[in-house]
Amino acid sequence: MKSRRYVPMAAIFAVIMVTVIFAGGLTSAHGEQLRVVGSWSSLTLYKNFEKPFWTEVVPKEMGFEVSMTSLSQVKLTGAAVMRQMEMGVFNVVHTVADYVVSDSPALAGLDLPALAPDIESARKVVEAYRPIMAKYIAEDFDAKLLSIVPYPAQVLFLRDKISSLDDLKGKKIRASGWTTSEFVTALGATGVTMSFSEVPQSLQRGVVDGAITGSLSGFSAGWGDVSNYVYPLPMGGWDYVIGSISMKTWMGLSADQQKKLVKLVKEKLEDPAWKVTEEETVAGIQCLTGGKCAYGNPGNLGLIPVTAEAQKAATQLLLNSVLPAWSQKVKPQVVDEWNDTIGKVTGLTAR
Predict the structure, then answer these.
(1) Cβ atoms of 247 and 92 closer than 8 Å
(2) Pairing, β 172-174 against β 190-192
(3) Which one, 7, 120, 330, 338, has least CB within 10 Å?
(4) Residue 33 lies in a domain
């Protein structure tokens, strides 16, 4: 039997309000209706892919009526949004995998610091670990995995120039998740937790010496205005967004509907979003460092090159610190599954 976690009253109130909002006026000629939560509404993944997919493609191709909201609107932190889907409040949820690892630590094995240095490696890692992700999303949230899409590579914005990872010792770095914080700590730095919106002022005032986020996200949020350098080693991984549908909803679809939905997700959402992520990772660095920029006036940050020595050092930190810390949070079976999938793709072994 699955254990149930305490849900704060504020979260319960939010769920009640969302339920009231969704409860009225949902009718369809085909009798099908979906309540969908997308990821962060200010970012490209939601605006250009998730929202058009669920509000245009799915109604047109499958005849379902869809009501769509986002993480920005429901304001449910951590794994709460997945729990509400499990309870039937929502049918489909897109959320950052790192947000729900407290309730499903096996999922953290997908996105570890410096695990996938480029988009090609990231795709191989995802395809290798997808069956494991699907297994634990089903077990821990009673849901069917539909998609895995990365945000742009999570890179390091800095006030001061570094020549190697050793130069980060003693510095305060805003980390984007617990595995990133583990990586930062292994460097001899201090991982600092703060919201995305707090970072620019904290960098400007020297509260933190550096901060990790996606290159284009940081550019769009003005981080380049309060930083001096960018270091494009994916220290925060890729911040994958997982899309899933409640198992009850999934089992209510016919075999043909299931097959069609999976096909549409891959062709109309997942694959094109991966392509744009690759482009946005490069575009973000270009925008930050004075290159061609289609997203605004380019900045003038110094680009610190990622050397082969730095990549090797990062891999050693992953092996010696991050992977052992993660292994302690999961069952031995999960470690074996990681080694049989991601381990074989990357040549790394978790212990």
Answers:
(1) no
(2) parallel
(3) 120
(4) yes
The answer to whether residues 167 and 264 belong to one domain is no
Task: List Cβ neighbours of 299 (8 Å cut-off, separation of 6 or more).
Answer: 219, 224, 225, 287, 288, 289, 290
Average pLDDT score over the chain: 89
Asked if residue 91 and residue 206 are part of one domain, the reply reads no
Identity of the amino acid at 321: S
For 112, residues 6+ apart whose C-beta sits below 8 A from its C-beta are: 179, 237, 318, 322, 323, 326
Please count the structural domains in the chain. Answer: 2
State percent of the chain over pLDDT 70: 91
DSSP states of 264-322: HIIIIIIHHHHHHHHHHHHHHHHHHTTS--SSSS---PEEPP--HHHHHHHHHHIIIII
- Dist CA 43 CA 70 (whole Å): 11
Q: Across-strand partners of 93?
A: 37, 244
Confidence of residue 10 (pLDDT cuts 50, 70, 90): very low
Q: Give the number of residues written for the chain.
A: 351
Dist. CA 112–CA 107, nearest whole Å: 10
pLDDT at 195: 77
What is the average pLDDT across 195-224?
91
Cα 13 to Cα 37, 74, 99, 231, 246: the distances in Å are: 17, 11, 20, 42, 21
Quick one: pLDDT at residue 6?
A: 41
Are residues 117 and 220 located together in one domain of the fold? Answer: no
Looking at residue 110, its amino acid is L
Number of H helices, E strands in the chain: 17, 11
User: Among 9-23, 84-98, 329-343, which stretch is predicted with the lowest mean pLDDT?
Assistant: 9-23
User: Secondary structure of 192-223 in the HEC alphabet?
Assistant: ECCCHHHHHHHHHHCCCCEEEEEHHHHHHCCH
Residue 2 lies in a domain: no
Residue 11 in 3-state DSSP? Answer: helix
Q: What is the pTM of this model?
A: 0.86
